[in-house]
Amino acid sequence: MAVARRWLEARVVDARAETPTARTLVLDVPGWPGHLPGQHLTVRLTSPDGYSAQRSYSIATPDSGARVELTVQLVPEGEVSEFLVTGVQVGDAFEVRGPVGGWFVWRAEDPAPLLLVAGGSGIVPLMAVVREHRRLLAPQPLELVVSVRSPEDLYYAGELAGLPGVTVVHTRRAPEGSGRPPARLSAPELAAVVARLPEQPRAYVCGPTGFVEAVADALVALGLDPAEVRTERFGPS
């Protein structure tokens, strides 16, 4: 997979709210070299006085030529995320470079069943995997587990509602009638999902550091090969 070593202009062609604090931006990036599900890119914003700031964001969709989608979570006092979530408008442009990453990626030729586990905004790169898997009508069994604080915090809620193999757990407030009180994702819940897969899966776990470490440890304790548990984390280490 090629990488854009130079900065490319990315123009916003569409924008939509995912949650009260997260927004998806659809970008047109002429010259984009393509990407694999699970990769990310770097955004650079430059002000008129020459000051610039850079941040990395996961790509939410499979490769589709010059079109790239990001879903950005507003970070308190985050100068880049604040602009992307609340400031940028359709027609605006900024710079991107990438794609970045070669470990936390899915290739369709990999025959292993897929276990995707996301904490909060960690669903973004995993959604690229889900969408590519659906686009290709891939034969590999796939299970997605998403942990969010409340129903309002779930990215891509409408899209996920119509998909098989999706488990959503709520840690602070559950929807009425869910039958599951708010609680952290537990090892028995992970075990139940793993049991639905026909053989040992390749697991992709993304989210805050503490969540990723707890899930990865639980999966290894359930018997998964540590080499088959791929992780990507954000926040303090």
List the SSEs and their pairings.
Blueprint: E1 4-19, E2 22-28, E3 40-46, E4 52-58, E5 67-73, H1 79-87, E6 93-100, E7 114-119, H2 123-136, E8 142-148, H3 157-161, E9 166-170, H4 187-195, E10 202-208, H5 209-221, E11 229-234
Parallel strand pairs: 7-8, 7-10, 8-9, 10-11
Antiparallel strand pairs: 1-2, 1-6, 2-5, 3-4, 3-6
Domain FAD-binding FR-type: 5-106
Pfam family, one: NAD_binding_1
Cofactor: FAD
What this model shows, in words?
The structure is a single chain. This protein is an alpha/beta fold and 237 residues long. It has 2 domains: 4-100, Translation factors (Elongation Factor Tu (Ef-tu), domain 3, Beta Barrel), CATH 2.40.30.10; 114-234, Nucleotide-binding domain of ferredoxin-NADP reductase (FNR) module (Rossmann fold, 3-Layer(aba) Sandwich), CATH 3.40.50.80. Helices cover 21% and strands 35% of the residues. It is built from 5 helices and 11 strands. It has helices at 79-87, 123-136, 157-161, 187-195, 209-221, and strands at 4-19, 22-28, 40-46, 52-58, 67-73, 93-100, 114-119, 142-148, 166-170, 202-208, 229-234. The chain has a 6-stranded antiparallel beta sheet, with helices on one face. Strand 8 (142-148), helix 3 (157-161) and strand 9 (166-170) form a beta-alpha-beta unit. It is globular and about 55 Å long. The relative contact order is 0.16. The model has no long low-confidence stretch (mean pLDDT 95).
